[in-house]
Amino acid sequence: MAKFLRVGVHDSNVSGYTSKAWTISQTGSTVLLQWGSVDVRGARPARRIYWAVPPRQKTVRCGSEKRARAYVERAIARRRGHRYEELVATARIGHRPPARRRVESRRILATVLFVDIVGSTEKAALVGDVRWNQVLRHYYAALRRALRAFGGKEVRTTGDGMLATFDRQTGAASAIRCANAMRQAVRTLGLEIRAGLHTGECELVGDAVEGIAVHIGARVMAKARPDEVLVSSAVKGLVVGSGIRFRDRGAHRLRGVPDKWRLYSVL
Q1: Could you say which of 113, 145, 146, 164 has the lowest number of CB atoms within 10 Å?
Q2: Calpha distance 159→128 (Å, rounded)
Q3: H or E element, residue 140
Q4: Is 30:62 a contact under the CB 8 Å cutoff?
Q5: What is the mean pLDDT of residues 215-228?
């Protein structure tokens, strides 16, 4: 069975994203297609993909195995040319398991880091889908190397970005240095990122990270310029004496967040 996940079609949020999936399988002279909306949870290699609703299905009877094979080959070629990521054979697109008992939550103080690629849509259109998917693999590998080096924890990917956290022991200074390492690493791929950091209380619910601090971090990133690491005043106040230098970017209103927030660009 061939399986594909649509790249770049998602609703970003801190617990994953929604995309589109497509599968095709052949049995003799008959071809079965399935497609529809999916919920993507986690990141490679622990990524889980669930049908958000029962998938649409189509059965095509081709009359002969040769015609069925040709039909499958043409269908796969079309998906490869339309911004679909081809999933490995072991990847599973399944139905969501029955809800289990409520997972207990706990609150922690953490620094959240959001990053995403500047102008990803334009770059994908310029280089083509096959090359862009290769770039994304190298991009995420670079982000994860930086996280390992500075003790961060990947929460999940968000289309062409990532949410990561740094706990109290790791510290806000490590989060800033990690963001700097990320923006330097991706330059070798011809990419620019924007990064936003905020420190506050977060709620851990299973593998998910929630709370107003997460939303503030996402809004800080949205204010960042290309190739900029932008932090909230809460982060700046925690790294006094670290040697990290900042430029004041003024007070800003963050969408959906009360009051104005003073933001600082990392030099």
Answers
A1: 145
A2: 17
A3: helix 129-150
A4: yes
A5: 94
Domain co-membership, 117 together with 91: no
For residues 261 and 233, is the Cβ–Cβ distance under 8 A? yes
Task: Tell me the C-alpha distance between 136 and 105, whole Å.
Answer: 33
What is the per-residue burial (b if ≥16 Cβ within 10 Å, else e) of 50-85?
A: bbbeebeeeebebeeeeebeebbeebbeebbeebbb
Q: Is residue 219 part of a domain?
A: yes
235 with 245: CB under 8 angstroms?
A: no
Asked if 217 and 114 touch (Cβ cutoff 8 Å), the reply is: yes
- What number of other Cβ atoms are within 10 A of residue 169's Cβ? 7
**237 within domain boundaries:** yes
pTM attached to this predicted model: 0.64
Whether the CB-CB separation of 176 and 231 falls below 8 Å is answered with yes
Residues 115 and 236 in one domain: yes
Report which of residues 159 and 23 the model is more confident about. 23
Which of these three, 43, 69, 95, is where a domain ends? 95
- Considering 61, 95, 129, which residue would you say is the last residue of a domain? 95
Q: Say whether both 249 and 118 belong to one domain.
A: yes
Neighbour tally for 247: CB within 10 Å: 10
Tell me, what's the pLDDT at 13?
A: 40
Q: Which residue has the higher pLDDT, 5 or 165?
A: 165
Decide if 117 contacts 127 (C-beta within 8 A). no
Per-residue confidence (pLDDT) for residue 43, from 0 to 100: 64
Beta bridge partners of 24: 2, 33
For residue 53 the two structure tokens come to 């609703």
What are the tens digits of pLDDT across the range 65-119?
A: 899 999 999 988 888 777 788 887 777 888 776 665 565 678 889 999 999 999 9
